[in-house]
Design goal:
The modification 4-aspartylphosphate is found at residue 53. The protein is an alpha/beta fold. The protein has helices at residues 12-24, 35-41, 61-69, 88-97, 109-119; strands spanning 4-8, 28-32, 49-52, 79-83, 101-104. It has one domain (4-119): 3-Layer(aba) Sandwich (Rossmann fold), CATH 3.40.50. Strand 4, helix 4 and strand 5 (101-104) form a beta-alpha-beta unit. It is globular and about 35 Å long.
Length: 122
Amino acid sequence: MAKTILIVDDSASLRQVVAIALRGAGYDVLEGCDGRDALGKLDGRKVHLIISDVNMPNMDGISFVKAVKQLPAYRFTPVIMLTTEAGEDKKREGQAAGAKAWVVKPFQPQQMLGAVAKLVLP
């Protein structure tokens, strides 16, 4: 059975690029256009990994990760932050919220898939 990955980014074109790479590697993909939208997709179904942007309207990525970690079903779901933010302060904030990896845009799909393969839940 394919593993499911939730992509959260306010850029539809970026979600598409990531989704194509993930589907090509055999993953199922869910998409959220911001943190609030993505929280609505976490409805109890199994999600093996979350890839989230940091800067989004309605609910930013750090707030979203904090909210995900409050949900018992998703507390241990690994999160990769995929963002233009390269600052150490933001990285520390993301790690404190519960993010496991930080990939800076623009990214190479192979680099992202490598991080996904290491973190995706069995």
